[in-house]
Design a protein that fits this description.
408 residues; alpha/beta; Rossmann fold; Argininosuccinate synthetase, chain A, domain 2; 3 domains; five-stranded antiparallel β-sheet; 12 helices; 14 strands; 40% helix
Length: 408
């Protein structure tokens, strides 16, 4: 592919320094029409400046797309993932990973709408996001052309980028005049910080890294109570009030922030082969995970629950690696969604200084039987003598092995 092969590009555009430089670089290098797409995923930033900056850089008003995707993001991406209780490497709630397929999907849709023959992202050549974006692009449009500036241009580092920005009169935020202390990605589910001051995993993250949570030590001395209602595995209400998916997650974020919940300092294994250290804040998601597991504990059959837990690491890895649109992820999703048909009810939680404590759970579909588990008279519901035969049958192979080894 040469620069002359491309006539129109849809750029995933945040309005920040890097993507503004990419925008100008595309215009100069490819000499083509550029369309910008800015997704509102609940990152908490005003998106108006992104439009103004795109206009300033010569983008036609009709080529600037800004879409509010918060409800779609939570409903169709975050909640399906939480039905699986997905954690990458046992800890990471996949906040960045789950946002990429939606952005890629919208870019491909806009490309079809405006007749663009290429899409562009701002991910670096060392990270996972380049993989996630591009696997999404190719899954949805196998013929699309992809421009990845960080793998193409000659800039060696941030000093080169700032010099380019100054030469082209691209506004530079004051905190970007020098090297930024860390890079940040944020959406309604989480924020993540990586790089620079965080690159030494032996060093404690400075307090300025944390943007979405109070320190647990600074959280209130009084606990916060919250009730989360579920239907078919998804949260549908808070404290008895029905709310939309994005509204529920936003409210849980507020509660989590105030109580110092959801911080994670993680060294993870990137798909591209290296280890990286990131600091994540997922306040609402941390609360939601605890609540979902609690309601599953009384509504999900043991076999189904254990099978789900066996499948979860594979499911989480698929999302982390960028295979949201793969047939295997969709197959696992069908299995997970089937398991959630009877997962409904309400969970009571106590939030206190970084802790999410399950205070109670109830459901009309509960499989929990007080009659069976009681230590008092169960009126014949369970004959304890039956356990003897159950144990002897399960011990048969162990006894056989023991007898053989004894002969030796």
């Amino acid at each position: 592919m040469t620069t002359r092969d491309i006539k129109k590009i849809v750029l995933a555009y945040s309005g920040g320094l890097d993507t503004s430089i990419i925008l100008k670089w595309l215009q100069e290098t490819y000499g083509c029409e550029v369309v910008t797409f800015t997704a509102d995923l609940g990152q908490g930033e005003e998106l108006g400046p992104a439009r103004e900056k795109a206009l300033m850089l010569g983008i036609k008003p009709g080529n600037i797309f800004i879409e509010d995707l918060r409800e779609e993001f939570v409903r169709d991406y975050v909640f399906p993932m939480f039905r699986a209780n997905a954690l990458y490497e046992g800890q990471y709630l996949l906040g960045t990973s789950i946002a990429r397929p939606l952005i890629a999907k919208k870019q491909i849709e806009i490309a079809a709408q405006v007749g663009a023959d290429a899409v562009c992202h701002g991910a670096t050549g060392k990270g996972n996001d380049q993989v996630r974006f591009e696997l999404g692009y190719y899954a949805l449009n196998p013929s699309i052309k992809i421009v990845a500036p960080w793998r193409e241009w000659s800039f060696k580092g941030r000093d080169d980028l700032i010099e380019f920005a100054r030469a082209h009169q691209i506004p530079i935020a004051k905190d970007k005049e020098g090297e930024a202390p860390f890079s940040v990605d944020a959406n309604l589910l989480h924020s993540s910080s990586e790089g620079k001051v965080l690159e030494d995993p032996a060093q404690t993250p400075p307090g300025i890294v944390y943007m979405r949570t109070l320190s647990p030590m600074e959280a209130p001395d009084q606990p916060t109570e919250v009730r989360i209602g579920f239907a078919k595995g998804d949260a549908v209400s808070l404290d008895g009030k029905p709310l939309s998916p994005a509204t529920i997650l936003a409210r849980l974020n507020e509660l989590g922030r105030a109580n110092g919940i959801g911080r994670l300092d993680l060294v993870e294994n990137r798909f591209v082969g290296m280890k990286s250290r990131g600091v994540y804040e997922t306040p609402g998601g941390t609360i939601l995970l605890a609540a979902h597991r609690a309601i599953e504990s009384i509504t999900l059959d043991r076999g189904a629950a254990h099978l789900k837990d066996e499948m979860m690491p594979r499911y989480a890895e698929l999302i982390y690696n960028g295979f949201w649109f793969s047939p295997e992820r969709e197959m696992l999703q069908a299995l997970i969604d089937k398991s959630q048909q009877q997962v409904e009810g309400e969970v009571r939680l106590t939030l206190y200084k970084g802790n999410v404590i399950v205070a109670g759970r109830s459901s009309a579909k509960s499989l929990y039987s007080a009659t069976l588990v009681t230590f008092e008279d169960d009126k014949g519901a369970y004959d304890q003598k039956d356990a003897e035969g159950f144990i002897r049958l399960n011990a048969l192979r162990l006894r056989t092995l023991g007898l053989r080894d004894k002969k030796k």
